Amino acid sequence: MNIYALIVTTVYLINIVVVAGMVFFKEKDVKSTMGWIFIFMLLPFVGYIFYFLVGSTTKFKILSKKYSLKKLEEGFNQVLRKNIESIEIGNTQVSPDFADMIKFNAKNGGGVYSADNDVTLFTSAKEKYERMFSEIENAKESINVLYFIIKTKDDIGKKFISLLAKKAREGVEVRLIYDRLGIMKNRRKDFKELTDAGGMVYAFLPYVFSSLIQANYRMHRKMVIIDGIVAYTGGINIGDDYLGLDPRVHPWRDSAIRITGSAVQSIQLRFLSDWEYLDKQAGKRRAYSSKVDNLPHIKKYFKVPETTGNMGMQILSSGPDSNNAPIRDAYLKILSSAKDYVYIETPYLAPDETLLSAFRMAARSGVDVRIIIPGVPDKRFVYYGTMSHIDELLNYGIKVYVHEGFIHSKMIVADDFVSAIGSANFDMRSFLINFEMTALVYDTTFALRCKNAYFEDLTHSNEINVEEFNARGRIKKMKEAAWRLLTPFM
User: Fold this and answer.
1) Helix (H) or strand (E) holding 463
2) Fold of domain 63-98+116-309
3) CA distances from 133 to 46, 232, 390, 421 (A)
4) Is residue 378 a contact partner of residue 415, using CB atoms and an 8 Å limit?
5) Which residues are designated catalytic?
6) Parallel, antiparallel, or unpaired for β 406-407 and 230-234?
7) Residue 250's Cα: distance from chain center in Å?
8) What sign does the dihedral 53-58-60-63 (CA atoms) show?
9) Given this structure, which CATH class describes domain 315-489?
10) Domain limits of the chain?
11) Is 350 helix (H, G, I), strand (E, B) or coil?
12) Tell me: the pLDDT tens digits for 408-461?
């Protein structure tokens, strides 16, 4: 056998091994598996390389264990076990109708339940920035920041970095994580004012090579934790376009929340785990000498809440390092548990077969299911993927509305009690590939605020008519079908 025949045989054997591994050992959706097998057939010499870079999550599961905060996470798991025991014997302030949902999210997604929280809803970036910047200005000890996008060349981005630098100069410990590929225009020098002031900054992932080989997996979470007692999360990043200043994508509608109470500790732990993941990858030479897992930092970061409310909450995180899809599963639970209504707004809609079945079952059980999607998309190709699912949903009896602008809000509210707001879109990229975080709030008062915001959004939206939608052009249908094919492995 000559060298070329040996190479070809080896490549095909590798393809067979990878395909066999996917079929027999990976718990993947059938559509996803078939999509990858198609790729291997089409690109036999590079398909398995493409799968390693884009499709495989094994490397993250290995690295997340290697680069974890073992002691803190062991303590968290002990709290979680006690939390689940408390839920099982009925020691919660929640209606029995939702107790099983809380128990499910605790066991399935590691969401510790607490009932002493207060949550404020923001329906615009302007509201959020004003409140958050004011609290950052008054920070005394620590500010921990993680954003998928920080547009450092925008006015609001410059203001944000300058404010953090000011606090760092005052002696406040500032740590910041941003996604390297969230905004390709960002450069290390854009954060120089902050680092010169003593702030600590990591990009996800820290090095260009790492980012390129793992480019499909993005750090999409958004969180700010101030002095360990107040946290912000939701869908709003840092940029002028979130203020509605982008003439191309306008108007912009988004959602975020401010949290006080014990749920802040779950968000703090999430940030510290993400920081540790990057810090340990940086190596001894590049890593910061200030470590987050020592006793002084633990006392600084995890505090007894100064002010408390009466809203129940769980914080769920997911990513390619997860053993399941806890945020998707939480949404499935909301759909399957709803008795009256489920209202959803999302910029991207690409459900898998399980979610589509849950939509169908909810709608045909008499639940009022409504979805608001953008009328002004920010990414045209993703929008075609979203539109490819609309006819199925309409046929189920679900009402779909198109907002007059770009709706970036990721919000669900159901039955005047449970609400979900976070970074996760209603698509498989968010559920399986990106690193995401969502807050589940169990409270009637907050649910009604979300419901009122939703109905306000409906006044700026138009319902899609089945006949008109089915009459759309053949070219549009072909584009939608083409992009839908990529959904299982995008």
Assistant:
1) strand 461-463
2) Endonuclease; Chain A (3.30.870)
3) 48, 11, 39, 21
4) no
5) 220, 222, 227, 408, 410, 415
6) unpaired
7) 23
8) negative
9) alpha beta
10) 3-56, 63-98+116-309, 315-489
11) strand
12) 999 999 999 999 999 999 998 899 889 999 999 999 999 999 999 999 999 999
